[in-house]
Structures are given as C-alpha cells and as structure tokens.
C-alpha cells in the first residue's frame, strides 16, 4: 500500500498558513462540557485512594486489611498489601481497557458525541451501584461500569478536543481534559476529607457523588455539536462545512475544509483501521500511541495519587494528616496544569516534556535517599523529614503536571491521520489503562518488596522517557491536525522508517533535509 492507490489520497500539501478562524464561544463551550469526561476520570482516581483508607469501608468489605492496618506489629511498607483491595482499585482500569477498544468503531462510525454519551450513561450506572453496594460483588460491578465509562470517555474526549480546537490553540484546549482530570482528583480529595468524619456511611457519599459530573457529561454530549472532521468522514459534508464555519467564526474555511475532505477521502478508503495502523507509514504514530501513555504511567504518578493517603500514613502521618497531604498534592497538580496550558502553544511540547522529566528524576532520587536513610521498616519519620518528603513529592507532582500529565494525552490525540485517529486513540487509552492496572495491582507489593527503592525504579523510567522525547518526538505545536502526517517525513529518524509517497508539489521529496521542527 506504500506506493500505490492510497498515495493519491490524503492531505497532499501544507496549507497551514491559509487557515483562518479564531477562538469562538462555540468551541469554548464544547471544550468545557467535553472536558467533564476528564473530571470523572480524575474523580475516580482520587476517590478510591481516600475511600480505601476509611475504617468503616475497610471493616465492611476488607476486614483483613482493617485488622492489619490497626496492628502495630505490622511492617510499615506492607500494611495494605492485599490483592482484594488492589482488585477494587484495578477492576476499573481493566474494564476501561477493554471498553476503549470497543469504543473505537463507535467513535468512528457514529461520531465522537455518541461515545461521550455512552461513557456518561455508564458512569451514572456505576456510581449508583457503588453508592448502594452491600457486598463486594456490587462494589466491583460498579467499578467495572465506571471503567466502561472511562474507556468511552477517554477515547472520545481528547479526540473531540483536538478536532474542535483551532491549530494554534490545540495544545491548550486539549489540555482542558487533563485540567479537568486534576480538578476531579482535587475534588475527590476534598470530599474524602469531609466524608471521613461521617461514620459509617461517608464512603457511600464519596463514591456516589461521581454521578453529578456523569449527568453533566451525558446531557452535554447530547447538546454538543459533532466535530466537522467526523461529519465529513461520515459523508455529511455540507453539515461538516457549516459546523466548521460556526466554530471558526468565519466563512473563509476553504483551506481547513480541503484538508479535512482530503483526509476523509483516505479515511473512507480504509476498512480496517486497526490493521492499517500497523503499516510502515503509520509506524511513528503507533510508537507514540504506545510509548507516550506507557511512559506517563511509568513516571510513578498514579502510585503517588492513588495511594497518597496510604503512603503518608505508612510514613507515620496520622489519618487526617494523610488526607491533608493528598489535598495538597491535588492542588499542586491542578495549578501546574494551568502553567502547562499557558505555555504549551508558546514553548512547544518537547521543552515541557524534557524539563519536567529532569525535575521528576531529581525529586524521585531525593525521596528515595530520605526514606532509605531515615525510614526503616518499622521506624517513623521525624517531623522535619516528613515535611521534606511532602515538599519533594509536591515538586515532583508540579513537574508532572506541566509535562507528562497533560502531554501524555495531548500528543497522541493530535498526531494520527483521520483514517486511524479513532483506532490510535483507542490504543493510547488501552495502553494507559493497562499500565495503570499493572502499577495499581503491583504497587503495594512492589512497595513491600522494594521499600524506598520503588522511587529509584520510577526515576530510571523517567530517564528513559526523557531521552526518548529528545531523540524521537518532533515538535507538533502549531501544525494543523490533518497535516501532522507530513511532519514525520521531515524528522531525521522517522523519514527512514516511512515509505516514500509521491506527493503533490514534490513536497515530501524536497523536504527531506531533516530540518523540521525537530531540534
């Protein structure tokens, strides 16, 4: 397929300079409502860590952990090492992994909105079941339904945001998803802090409140406009043009419309996007769709956010002090995502990823050293060292929040050509949830086995990912989403991997000097 029929299809030349349009109210509203999907994802991450450290919840569903937690003779690092408790947290991610792959054909054939609505309905059902749970089966079933919601929501929302946003603001608007995620985590921490005092049913309130954003996402999904890219891909060309004019605030959308039309021509000639994504011409995007989300989780951030209360309790902070600490990390994550939103379209993706990576490595090593020297298997940290650990963890979270946090979602959602975009996003979500599942399931056992070395384990991975970005990721800021396919042909490494395509105006052939955006 490398040289033949498909070469004549697809985006044939750069028209970015001819793109017209501005940020409109329609785009702003659409992005706000769509990003609620991120808030639910964040809420579910944040809520489970707090709920699993509440005594009434543990007593009802995990009596073994409850006894271990209150046993002073227990090794600090191993108190919460229980596969049932890990399954409660992890079932959500496994369900999300499977459903994100199911969501791909729905998003492609029925539009981005359809998946957003499916996700919202599933969230509603899951939150209701969890709040009413009387046994472990109901609890896990509710988590699975929440997972299905996450699979659909995380598959459709970043795509929706990337396609609605004008090219020069795509990074910032796409990050609304991550901003909403951090807001969800922060809200969950605040709610847990309040509900821990409501005994014995506070945990039900914590789990049930996920229904509020779920309702907003479902209603919003029904009222939002569909993206022009999706409408054109599904043959509703005139409607797609009308939506494009409305969201760009101008009738002069010829260049962008032509790019979409050419991209959808190619998209419609491809019957099996998942098979197509394996072809050499899609190799760079596939590598990014697997590596970016995997690396995002291998920073170790989820371990810190999931188990922040548990982690702080293990270090000897009291029960409510640990929730204080989690609220603090949630607030830091939220504020650092705002830093990222304001700088991503100015500084670019690469600078943020590399600088964030370096800061995270330093923080992980410092935490490992403090814990290794000052905190044994049964000792407690002195107050000054405990404060130092919290400060360094906050600096780690700050660096994550402006780099891998938002960009781990933004970069994969903006690099795929239309014909494999939905499948590519499914792979991104599935990989993200797979690694989240593995780390969630293994973290408490790893903590028990590695002790403080767990932080060095993550620091090693952050080193790998920082080098990876420096070598393999071209700068994508300001490149229109339908012209992204041309960017890889200018990169010193990826142009060797991709087959030659006879493009119009000799574009790819002439532009092979490697001096693209890649520095």
TrEMBL record:
CDD domains the record matches: MFS_STP
Molecular-function annotations in GO: monosaccharide transmembrane transporter activity; symporter activity
Domain Major facilitator superfamily (MFS) profile: 30-477
Compartments (UniProt record): Membrane
CC per GO annotation: membrane
Primary localization: membrane
Matching PROSITE patterns: MFS, SUGAR_TRANSPORT_2
Top-level taxon of origin: Eukaryota
Organism taxonomic ancestry: Eukaryota, Viridiplantae, Streptophyta, Embryophyta, Tracheophyta
Transmembrane intervals: 23-43, 85-103, 115-134, 173-191, 203-224, 286-309, 321-341, 353-373, 385-405, 426-446, 452-473
Pfam families per record: Sugar_tr
Protein name per the record: Major facilitator superfamily (MFS) profile domain-containing protein
Membrane topology: Multi-pass membrane protein
Keyword field contains Transmembrane helix: yes
NCBIfam families (alphabetical): SP (TIGR00879)
Keyword annotations: Membrane, Sugar transport, Symport, Transmembrane, Transmembrane helix, Transport
Similarity remark: Belongs to the major facilitator superfamily. Sugar transporter (TC 2.A.1.1) family.
